[in-house]
Design a protein that fits this description.
The protein contains two helices and no strands. The chain is mostly helical. It has one domain.
Length: 93
Amino acid sequence: MHLEYLRTAEGDALWKALVATREALDEAHERYQRALAAAMEADAGVNGERAVRSEGRAYAAALTKHSNAAMAWLSYVDTNLHPKNGGGRSLSI
């Protein structure tokens, strides 16, 4: 495998974005679960419903961002892992 072809500024930025969006997704998921549990545990009323909806939208947005970052990374890997005709760059790791 030619993993050295992935070690570029663009590759590093895409990988960092993937990691950051995964962390944000995990945090959003935890907040959503807490809001849902709180709303179900007690008679949270309108405020509990609002919290669940709000955290649900935030969770969906985080999921979309992570999905986009994953697709960008996977596309980058697909394009750069095996450069055609030896045209890729090799950087020391």
